[in-house]
Every structure is written in C-alpha cells, then in structure tokens.
C-alpha cells in the first residue's frame, strides 16, 4: 500500500488480496465450492433464496453494519436500534411473504442482532405446543401478525433450573372464573426473559397452579402485561430491564413482579392440562408435556453452534492465510503464512471441522425431533424420553465445544483477535450464553445420565433396547480394539466402535459406583450426589459417540463428487480422531484402545492437518457467509485485512477530532501545573 493510500483510511483495495487469491487458485476444491454451499443451504435453490434475502437486507443501512455497530453505541441506542431492526424485519417478512424458514434465514443473515427474537424463538412455538386448538385459533394469528408481541417467562430470581421450585403462583378463583397471578417473594420475581424489559405486551408465564389450596404443578398462563394503547404496564404489573449483560445488549431481558394480576380462565394454555369453570383439574399426557417448548429450542441451539463456528472459522482461516509472521525456512525471503504452522492449523482446523460436524449432526437431530413431535401431536409419547435426552445432551455438548473452540480461534488471531472489530470477542461472549440458556449444561448432562442409568439397568435385566442406547446390550467381553494398524485410524466406522466401547465402559462404571454406594447403605440421593462427576463424564462419552454416529451416517447419505467427498471426509476423520486424542485418558483407561493405537491416532491427527491445509480457504468459502454477517475486519472475502482495520478506526468516537475535550479539561491543566509551556 502506498503512503498516500495509507493516509486515506477509507480506501479498501478493489482486488482480492493476492495471499487469499493464491489459496483459491491452488485448492483443487475451488471449482466444487458451490456444491458444498448447496449442501449447507439444503439445495441450490435455497442458496439462491438466501442470497436474495441477503440482497434485500443489506441494501438497507439498518442491517449493513448489524454485526459490529453495537460496539460504539450506548445501551439505550443499541436497544432502540434492535427494536427498529425487529420491526423492519417483521415488515420485510410480510412484504416478501417469507415463510418461517426464510425468516429464520434472515435472522442468521443479520447474526441475531435484533431485540424481539424471543417472540419467534419461544413465544410462538410455545403457543403452538401448549395451546388447545381453540386457543390457537384465538391467539396464534395475533402473534404471527405481530398484533401481540410476547416472551416466555419461566426463570425466576431464585430458580432457573429447578422448575418444581418455581414460586410464581396462579390461583384459580371459581367465582370470577379467573386466575390470580402473584410473585409473592423476592425469589419468585421473573428474571431473564428476553424482550420482557421494555418490549413485549404479552408473556407466557410459567407458574404453579393452585386450586382450593392444592398445588397442581407448573403450567403456562398467557398474560397481558402492557396496555395495547400506550404500552404502560397494566395494573399489578411491575416490569423492567435487568441491566447490561456480557453480550446480547440489544435484547431487553427483563424482570417482572406480579401483584394480584387477574386473567380469564381461558388464558391458561390448556393443551396438556385443563381447569373447568368449576375449578376441576384434569391432565392428559405425561407430566412433563409442558416442558416441550424447551426441547425445540435445545434442538435449534445445536444448529446455532454450527453457524457460530462457521462464522468464526471463516474469520480465522482467511486471516491465517493472509497474516505472515516469522519464517519456517530461514533461506526464504518471505515470512511464512501463519496458516502454514502446524500449531496454527491445530488451533484453527478443529473449529472448522466441528462447524461441519455440527451442521450434519444438527440436521439429523432436527429430523429426529420433527418425527417425534409429529408422534406426540397424535398422542404417542413413547419417544419423548429419548428425544429429551438427545436434545438436552446435544445442546450441552455442542455449546461446550463451541465456547472452547471459539476462544481458541480468537487466540489464533493474536492481538488482532482481541480487537472488537475482529468480532471474535463478541462471538465468544455470546456463545457463553448457550452453555446456560435453555437448561444449564451440567444439569442437562445429568438428565442424560439419569436416562442412561435407567436404560443400563433395563439392559442388565435383559430388555432389548432401541434408539441411541441400543448398544448398552453389548457383551463387553467380546470387545477387542478394532484398530490394528495406523491405516485403521482413517476408518471412521472402526473409530465409532472405539467410541461406543468407551461410552459403554464409562456408563457401566457410573452404574457400578452408584450400586456400590447404595449397597453400602447410602441413601439414593447421597449415592447420586457422590457420583455426579462420573455421571456427567458418562453422559458426555455417550453423547460424543452419538454425535460420531450421526455425523458419519449423515455423510454416508450424501451424493457428492469425488473431490467434495474427499475434502469432507478429511474433516470427518480429523474430527473423529481429534476427539479421541482430546479425551485420551478416558479411552486408555477404559481400554477402548491401547498405547500403540494412541500413538497411531496422534500421528493420524497431525497427518490430517496437512491434508486439510490446501483446501482450508475453500472449505470456509463454501459456507458463503456474507461479510456483513460475520462483521469481522479480519475475515472478509477479499482478505484486505489491514486496510479494513485502518478503516474501522474511523468508527471510533475518540477519532472524531484531533484533540479530545479531555485534554483541555484534565491533561492540559495537569501538564501546565508547573508552567512548563515554555519547554
Ligand atoms: C448465532 C448466534 C445465536 C445466538 C442466539 C441466542 C439467543 C438466545 C435465546 C435464548 C432463549 C432462552 C430461553 C430460556 O432459557 S427459557 C428457560 C429455559 N429453562 C430451562 O431449560 C430449565 C431447565 N430445567 C429443566 O429443564 C428441568 O427442571 C430439569 C430437566 C432440570 C428437571 O426437571 P424437574 O425439576 O421437573 O425434575 P424431575 O426430576 O421431577 O423430572 C425429571 C423427569 O422429567 C423428565 N423430563 C425433564 N425435562 C423434560 C422435557 N423437556 N421433556 C420431557 N421429559 C422431561 C426427565 O426425563 C425425568 O423423567 P423420568 O422421571 O422418567 O426419569
Ligand atoms: C442470555 C440469557 C437469556 C435467557 N432467556 C431466558 C428467557 O427468555 N426465558 C426464561 O425463562 N429464562 C431465560 N434465561 C434463563 C436461563 O434459562 C437460566 O439461567 C438457566 O436455565 C439456568 O438456570 P439458573 O440461572 O437458575 O442456574 P442455576 O441452576 O442456579 O445454576 C448455577 C449452578 O448450579 C448448578 N446446579 C443447579 N442445579 C443443579 C443440580 N440439580 N445438580 C447439579 N448442579 C446443579 C449448575 O450446574 C450451575 O453450575 C436466560 C438466561 C440467559 C443467560
């Protein structure tokens, strides 16, 4: 770049950075990128549809800088802009007649930077799942047409995890045929629901139902909170924002205090349980049927994780192909690309491989969920425990992986990864929320462990199992490690057997430890608590095995060209081997593999880094993520990293004048205190 151009901070070269261009020129995968993009989008038509949505959104300045502009704005403005974006997004949905799926694409395109997400993510799905047909006819179109805006208000100050412990109460008054809602204690105050603070006028409030002094468990109550005339809180309602968070500050997560708020009997969402005019309580289906909206969101989070990692690996791979630092070969005149260092590949490729893995895994999980949901809608709850276990567990495992890998990606960009303009810091902080929302990860792993203990006991008593736990019927004596040569480490089917045995061993160990403690005289709850750590380990091992199987089988179903198959298979092998090496202790301790196999696997792992290297840029290009979506100066398609960094300094409010007012107010009087102006 010339000195003159350096002074013109607004200039971004019109050409792609030759460093990135050479990557694209040299990758044999480049001609096949659109084939992979079509897989990720679910077909070439969908790719075109997404690009059309991008064109619509990004011709509007309101959305163009959405991924990054919040950095420079005070909270108040961020919220206002988030509401403006929400309203524009809803209007565009109507204008272009977008389906729910297309609306979902639009939300991805703007990287979730809007305020009223809870209305779509939870309020409408909860209405669909918890209402009777009559209630749906009354409320759903109002919500879908944005005549009412709502949220899902379950968590309280004192309880998020333990739903039996929720203290908000809905007491039935048969004389007026109303429920009276109260948050009678400090700990019962609703706390966290998205868009509650300032935006919504309705909420589905999860409260303990009381009739004639008797408790009937947690139920959903559709409750108006603000006037539809002037948006003021209705009588008995106190509501506000809970304050700034690590990220998501466009969203007004709120608190809610209810003091004798009366709602008509018809506003209890009665699909799963009914209260008659006279106050007679009946229920149908399992007691946890009211937890169903959470299952859907957990399934969705697995897909979000894949999207987050696609964004971050786009940034880190492109940046690593542009950045040069030190040199591998002292005779070379040029410094080396950091992407050529094996250690850099080891930081960057796990994210890339996991982005693809979670894409395939989330697709399978979604299909499994839709199948089970259809059965449940017909009154068949047989597969509910299995889908609860799968959705809760996959949410926990993918959120855990995502946070870990994202932070490594951020570090892989060195100092520049610490700049807000890299967008990686915000991505890490946002992903951290996914570990907690929709069920705290440890708690969800323990739900999986509870299911596994039951299934293991059933297997031991001779029951034939199906679904994800079918393998618990295995005879461990018959296992011998299937990896007999270094070449076997590339065989994912063999590696899946290794994962399966490790899971079996860890589950049986947890079961044995529990049994030992109970037989030793410990009470059930004490025995459980004394083994929670092993139970979580067992759950993780099971989920990782399930993930491998779903990934492998999903890949097997693809009809793809040879180069694409080779590139995607490299990622599959790397992901499978990487997660064994990462958990080496468990695999060795359970004797799923021996020391020689571990040596071979470690060699295979680094060999795969070299296999992936030539196609790394093509593999992230294939995600086809718009520069405005990831919003990172480091990760744009043209690779003009340094020019974009310089340009981004123009957005900094401190740079709007040469001499800041604080100089006159503070620094100047201080410097001149001894009359040094003559120096
Ligand atoms: C690209 C960037 C994207 C970023 C975008 C970010 C946007 C963020 C939006 C986030 C929105 C967040 C919303 C929320 O967080 S809403 C609140 C969510 N809250 C929770 O998830 C609460 C977690 N707690 C629970 O789910 C349960 O309390 C728990 C499972 C922990 C235990 O339940 P309970 O207290 O009732 O325990 P029990 O021991 O009595 O019951 C256990 C039995 O119940 C079965 N069970 C549990 N849950 C379910 C379910 N959902 N479906 C079916 N069955 C369930 C369980 O299997 C046990 O059965 P058994 O008794 O037969 O063993
Ligand atoms: C960004 C964000 C958005 C949210 N949006 C909403 C929303 O829209 N609506 C809504 O209702 N809620 C919302 N929530 C709340 C969220 O669902 C809860 O925070 C979550 O369910 C965890 O509950 P908790 O905060 O009570 O954590 P806690 O349960 O208090 O967890 C604290 C610690 O205790 C441990 N722990 C708790 N119980 C057990 C147990 N039984 N066994 C072992 N360990 C245990 C956990 O593992 C954790 O380490 C949101 C939260 C966040 C961060």
UniProtKB/TrEMBL annotation:
One of its GO terms (biological process) is lipid homeostasis. Its cofactor is FAD. SUPFAM superfamilies: Acyl-CoA dehydrogenase C-terminal domain-like, Acyl-CoA dehydrogenase NM domain-like. It is found in: Peroxisome. InterPro entries: ACOX_C_alpha1 (IPR055060), Acyl-CoA_ox_N (IPR029320), Acyl-CoA_Oxase/DH_mid-dom_sf (IPR046373), Acyl-CoA_oxidase (IPR012258), Acyl-CoA_oxidase_C (IPR002655), AcylCo_DH-like_C (IPR036250), AcylCoA_DH/ox_N_sf (IPR037069), AcylCoA_DH/oxidase_NM_dom_sf (IPR009100). GO terms for molecular function: acyl-CoA oxidase activity; ATP binding; FAD binding; fatty acid binding. Pathway: Lipid metabolism; peroxisomal fatty acid beta-oxidation. It holds the Pfam family ACOX_C_alpha1. It comes from the Eukaryota. Residues 291-453 form the Acyl-CoA oxidase C-alpha1 domain. GO terms for cellular component: peroxisome. Its main location: other. FAD binds at residues 155, 194. The active site is at 438 (proton acceptor). Keywords: ATP-binding, FAD, Fatty acid metabolism, Flavoprotein, Lipid metabolism, Nucleotide-binding, Oxidoreductase, Peroxisome. Residues 34-149 form the Acyl-coenzyme A oxidase N-terminal domain. Residues 493-672 form the Acyl-CoA oxidase C-terminal domain. Belongs to the acyl-CoA oxidase family. This is Acyl-coenzyme A oxidase. It comes from Magallana gigas (Pacific oyster).
